[in-house]
Amino acid sequence: MLISILQHTPHWVWWLLAALVSVGVSQTHPRHRTLRAATAIPIAMAALSFYGVVSVFAAQSIALVAWAAAVLAAVVISHAAGVGSKVRWLAAEQRLLVPGSWVPLMLILGLFIIKFGANVALAMHPDLSGDGLFAVSVSLAYGAFSGIFLARGLAMWRVARQAEPSSMAF
Protein backbone atom coordinates (compact mmCIF):
# COMPACT_ATOMS: atom_id res chain seq x y z
CA MET A 1 0.00 0.00 0.00
CA LEU A 2 2.84 2.44 0.80
CA ILE A 3 4.35 1.86 -2.64
CA SER A 4 0.98 2.57 -4.24
CA ILE A 5 0.62 5.82 -2.26
CA LEU A 6 4.09 6.96 -3.28
CA GLN A 7 3.50 6.01 -6.93
CA HIS A 8 0.20 7.90 -7.08
CA THR A 9 1.58 11.03 -5.47
CA PRO A 10 1.81 13.83 -8.06
CA HIS A 11 5.35 14.63 -9.18
CA TRP A 12 5.03 18.26 -8.13
CA VAL A 13 4.80 17.10 -4.48
CA TRP A 14 8.31 15.66 -4.69
CA TRP A 15 9.60 18.85 -6.31
CA LEU A 16 7.97 20.83 -3.50
CA LEU A 17 9.61 18.56 -0.93
CA ALA A 18 13.00 19.07 -2.60
CA ALA A 19 12.52 22.86 -2.54
CA LEU A 20 11.45 22.79 1.12
CA VAL A 21 14.44 20.63 2.07
CA SER A 22 16.69 23.07 0.22
CA VAL A 23 15.21 26.00 2.16
CA GLY A 24 15.56 24.08 5.42
CA VAL A 25 19.17 23.09 4.77
CA SER A 26 20.02 26.71 3.91
CA GLN A 27 18.85 27.62 7.42
CA THR A 28 21.57 25.43 9.00
CA HIS A 29 24.28 28.00 8.29
CA PRO A 30 24.67 31.41 9.97
CA ARG A 31 23.53 34.19 7.66
CA HIS A 32 22.87 37.89 7.48
CA ARG A 33 19.22 38.59 6.71
CA THR A 34 17.04 41.63 6.31
CA LEU A 35 14.12 41.70 8.67
CA ARG A 36 11.72 41.16 5.79
CA ALA A 37 13.61 38.13 4.46
CA ALA A 38 13.94 36.62 7.93
CA THR A 39 10.21 36.79 8.55
CA ALA A 40 9.00 35.75 5.08
CA ILE A 41 9.31 32.00 5.68
CA PRO A 42 7.45 31.99 9.02
CA ILE A 43 4.63 34.04 7.54
CA ALA A 44 4.45 31.88 4.41
CA MET A 45 4.41 28.63 6.41
CA ALA A 46 1.68 29.92 8.72
CA ALA A 47 -0.39 31.12 5.75
CA LEU A 48 -0.04 27.75 4.02
CA SER A 49 -1.09 25.85 7.12
CA PHE A 50 -4.08 28.17 7.64
CA TYR A 51 -5.05 27.61 4.01
CA GLY A 52 -4.72 23.85 4.59
CA VAL A 53 -7.25 24.03 7.42
CA VAL A 54 -9.67 26.34 5.62
CA SER A 55 -9.56 24.45 2.33
CA VAL A 56 -10.40 21.09 3.90
CA PHE A 57 -12.29 21.86 7.10
CA ALA A 58 -14.08 25.13 6.29
CA ALA A 59 -17.42 23.67 7.35
CA GLN A 60 -16.07 22.88 10.81
CA SER A 61 -15.46 26.04 12.79
CA ILE A 62 -13.90 23.95 15.58
CA ALA A 63 -11.00 23.24 13.22
CA LEU A 64 -10.25 26.95 12.86
CA VAL A 65 -10.52 27.43 16.63
CA ALA A 66 -8.13 24.49 17.18
CA TRP A 67 -5.66 25.93 14.67
CA ALA A 68 -5.74 29.39 16.27
CA ALA A 69 -5.43 27.96 19.80
CA ALA A 70 -2.45 25.85 18.78
CA VAL A 71 -0.77 28.84 17.09
CA LEU A 72 -1.23 30.95 20.19
CA ALA A 73 -0.03 28.22 22.55
CA ALA A 74 3.03 27.48 20.40
CA VAL A 75 3.96 31.18 20.18
CA VAL A 76 3.68 31.60 23.95
CA ILE A 77 5.60 28.40 24.74
CA SER A 78 8.28 29.14 22.13
CA HIS A 79 8.74 32.67 23.48
CA ALA A 80 9.05 31.32 27.03
CA ALA A 81 11.59 28.77 25.80
CA GLY A 82 13.74 31.54 24.31
CA VAL A 83 13.22 30.85 20.62
CA GLY A 84 15.28 33.33 18.65
CA SER A 85 17.37 34.39 21.62
CA LYS A 86 20.62 33.90 19.69
CA VAL A 87 19.62 36.24 16.86
CA ARG A 88 21.56 39.51 16.84
CA TRP A 89 20.90 42.86 15.17
CA LEU A 90 23.86 44.28 13.25
CA ALA A 91 23.20 48.01 13.38
CA ALA A 92 25.96 48.95 10.94
CA GLU A 93 24.52 46.63 8.29
CA GLN A 94 20.86 47.06 9.24
CA ARG A 95 20.55 43.27 9.17
CA LEU A 96 20.00 40.37 11.47
CA LEU A 97 22.68 37.80 12.18
CA VAL A 98 20.72 34.56 12.33
CA PRO A 99 22.67 31.60 13.66
CA GLY A 100 22.46 28.33 11.79
CA SER A 101 19.96 25.82 13.11
CA TRP A 102 18.50 22.49 12.10
CA VAL A 103 15.19 23.44 13.75
CA PRO A 104 13.67 25.13 10.66
CA LEU A 105 14.40 22.04 8.55
CA MET A 106 12.80 19.79 11.17
CA LEU A 107 9.76 22.06 11.36
CA ILE A 108 9.42 22.20 7.59
CA LEU A 109 9.69 18.42 7.31
CA GLY A 110 7.30 17.88 10.21
CA LEU A 111 4.67 20.11 8.67
CA PHE A 112 5.18 18.48 5.26
CA ILE A 113 4.78 14.98 6.72
CA ILE A 114 1.61 15.91 8.59
CA LYS A 115 0.13 17.61 5.52
CA PHE A 116 1.11 14.70 3.28
CA GLY A 117 -0.33 12.17 5.73
CA ALA A 118 -3.56 14.13 6.16
CA ASN A 119 -3.98 14.44 2.39
CA VAL A 120 -3.35 10.72 1.88
CA ALA A 121 -5.90 9.91 4.60
CA LEU A 122 -8.42 12.27 3.00
CA ALA A 123 -7.80 10.80 -0.47
CA MET A 124 -8.37 7.29 0.85
CA HIS A 125 -11.29 8.26 3.12
CA PRO A 126 -12.94 11.49 1.90
CA ASP A 127 -15.50 11.27 4.70
CA LEU A 128 -12.73 12.23 7.15
CA SER A 129 -13.20 15.87 6.11
CA GLY A 130 -16.42 15.76 8.13
CA ASP A 131 -14.90 13.97 11.11
CA GLY A 132 -14.53 16.45 13.98
CA LEU A 133 -11.75 14.55 15.75
CA PHE A 134 -9.70 14.28 12.56
CA ALA A 135 -10.28 17.96 11.76
CA VAL A 136 -9.24 19.08 15.26
CA SER A 137 -6.19 16.79 15.33
CA VAL A 138 -4.88 17.96 11.97
CA SER A 139 -5.66 21.60 12.77
CA LEU A 140 -3.86 21.41 16.12
CA ALA A 141 -0.79 19.97 14.42
CA TYR A 142 -0.81 22.60 11.65
CA GLY A 143 -1.32 25.34 14.23
CA ALA A 144 1.48 24.13 16.51
CA PHE A 145 4.02 24.11 13.69
CA SER A 146 2.78 27.49 12.47
CA GLY A 147 3.06 28.94 15.96
CA ILE A 148 6.68 27.84 16.27
CA PHE A 149 7.47 29.37 12.88
CA LEU A 150 5.71 32.60 13.84
CA ALA A 151 7.51 32.71 17.19
CA ARG A 152 10.82 32.64 15.31
CA GLY A 153 9.65 35.50 13.07
CA LEU A 154 8.39 37.52 16.05
CA ALA A 155 11.71 36.99 17.80
CA MET A 156 13.48 38.56 14.82
CA TRP A 157 11.23 41.60 15.02
CA ARG A 158 11.74 41.84 18.76
CA VAL A 159 15.54 41.74 18.42
CA ALA A 160 15.53 44.44 15.73
CA ARG A 161 13.06 46.66 17.60
CA GLN A 162 14.97 46.42 20.87
CA ALA A 163 18.26 47.21 19.15
CA GLU A 164 17.04 50.16 17.07
CA PRO A 165 13.45 51.10 17.92
CA SER A 166 13.43 54.20 15.73
CA SER A 167 14.95 52.91 12.49
CA MET A 168 14.09 49.36 11.60
CA ALA A 169 15.03 48.38 8.05
CA PHE A 170 13.00 46.01 5.95
From TrEMBL:
Which InterPro entries did the record assign? DUF6622
Source taxon at top rank: Bacteria
Keyword terms of this UniProt record? Membrane, Transmembrane, Transmembrane helix
Q: Which Pfam families match?
A: DUF6622
- What transmembrane ranges does the database entry give? 12-28, 40-58, 64-84, 96-114, 134-155
The protein depicted here goes by the name: Putative TRANSMEMBRANE PROTEIN
Q: Which organism is it from?
A: Caballeronia sordidicola
